[in-house]
Amino acid sequence: MSTGALGKVYEDGEILMRQGEAGDGMFVIQEGQVEIVVDAGGHSTRVRVAGEGEIIGEMAVFENVVHSATVRAMGRVRALTVDRRNFLRQINEDPSIAFRLVQTMSRRVRELSEEVVRLKRQS
Amino acid sequence: MLPWLGAPPLESPEDARLVDGCSVAVLGSGPAGSFFAYFLLEMAAHAGLRLQVDLYEPRDFSKAGAQGCNMCGGIISESLVQNLAAEGVNLPPAVVQRGIDSYVLHMDVGSVRIDTPLHEKRIGAIHRGSGPRDLSTARWESFDLHLQRRALARGARLIAGRVDAVDWSERRPWVRVRDGERKQYDLIAVAVGVNSTILPVFEALNLGYRRPKTTKTVIREYFLGEDVIAATLGTSMHVFLLDIPRLEFAAIIPKGDYVTMCLLGEDVDNALIEDFVGRREVVACMPPGWDAQARSCQCLPQMNIRGADMPLADRLVFVGDCGVTRLYKDGIGGAYRTAKAAARTAVFEGVSAAAFRRGYLPACRRIARDNDVGRIAFFLTRLVQRMRLARRAMYRTVVAEQSKAANARRLSGVLWDMFSGSAPYKDIFSRMLHPALMGALARSAAVSAVHSERPVPVEDKKS
To answer: Degrees (nearest 5) of the Cα angle B311, B317, B320?
Structure first.
């Protein structure tokens, strides 16, 4: 890893955040890929894979609840933590900093809607 | 030299709005100018506006030495790294020369290493230009060049020239590049820093703008090599609280192959610098055999310590160091905040003085008010610097904190934020006055008063 690599390195299979645990920030993936897995009813379901530049764990920033999924490194991953406190303070000064996050959440809602439609058609 | 001076006519807010096809001049393509151009074009795209943005920059940031340098310590604060990441501006290892995950506080009573609670590298050490003048091969990209390229990728146009005159006619500002033609704009954003010779031109326009109050700083670069830096300074920023008259603050920042030494103070001169580099605490954190005179380069730039008067007018706004910035620390963070506030105002509220007063001035005032609190916080730090018992109490408290949980390391957190510029001074000051911290310091002072201690070197300076 280069001397200038910001964030923290997670090895293959290492957990960035665990479902059910309290979160104090979100992650921005700098290098590599992570899988987002939800455990429910005794089964683990991979919800999606996130890659470089993507924000994950943003729900914990706004809802102040425990993580709704587990995020695990797929191979070597470098991720940067964005503190909840720092981010909310910055939003208070400059609401436009949340624009990209709103874009991300909007895209995910659209993807989920498409997924619901697909599942309904299958059933 | 200044052929077209004259105060511009005042405009009503309704007249001064950016519409499709408007053109904007940005004078200076350091962080403030490039951030302004980048965010202006991004927000304009969100608003469905097509703007022409011209970035005027005489320097070539790909060149080593003074030709491409903007004279700065070169630290991207923890809060700025996070804010940029949230904006989708991730700083690559090709630009960041070293990720910083800790700092080592050096005092005559001992040295102590303080790690970030998350053990994560969230401070970036960079060179603003390509590197010091003796650089043979550039292994990292200039930070200013990186930001400039981002602005150009958004659609800004680079004009490699220095603006030496500004004038108003036909209710619009005009600029003239040295030996070039005049060009009319709908808005001028001035982002030239405090060391520029263009600022008197704006003062002469009688708009109320007055340059910021400044103080001299010293920035020195030493070539040590990547391996030597890893084995000595590691991934820590080294901060010095030494009882040297006129010295406010000193730090040694490890980069890729070089280390940057920054000294802030009152009337910094060669005598003060030589006093500092000869101190035992400084020599001890550098590699064996280090020669303080074998520097790669040195500059003594001015630093903004009190913001400009009236950093705005009709169709004119001053961002970054030539306007208002954070006191002593996080100048690039100050450039980001003011550039973004000005860009937001220009796109969504207009470019009249009234619009900037409404949308931009509050951001400047927030920084200026926080700097007032910062002045008190630095005054207290200065007291500690001057009083050996206070230094011993601080050292004892910080050492004791390292075995505690992250949220119980109150003094370490305060010092981290003071030295890294990662939090508002108001926030730091309120944590400074927390009764639990005051109690811990009082206990440490009492113990220190009855026990003599020998200076203790830091145990682990490596990454």
So the answer is: 70
